[in-house]
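Re: that chain you flagged

S.,

Sorry for the slow reply, it's been a week of failed gels. I finally had a moment to sit down with the sequence you sent. For the record, here it is as I used it:
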Amino acid sequence: MAERVRVPVALLRRASELLLDHLESVEGDALLVDKDYYWAIAPEQLYDAYTEPSTFTVGQLSECLENLEQIVEDPSRSTSFALVWLADLLRSAGHTVTR
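Prediction finished late last night. Pasting the structure tokens below so you have them in one place:
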């Protein structure tokens, strides 16, 4: 049986605030990411640590950014899947800014 991990939303919110505050103090109000495309792995393969992924697709950070801008413009477009776009951009920030 797969182990389940309880992730408190309040912890995610607080950690996000702290880490985004740190990012802003280091980079200012925006950061420049020098890569746009990235490898993406389907969720059923991404979370199966016992099987090597066999299928990859390509994601695009600028597309993630556009999707999030649309949600900010019209919050009724919010979906849980939008967290994936946010995560892709946050991962890129973490790889880009190393302080």
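What I noticed first: The longest strand covers residues 37-41.

Talk soon,
D.
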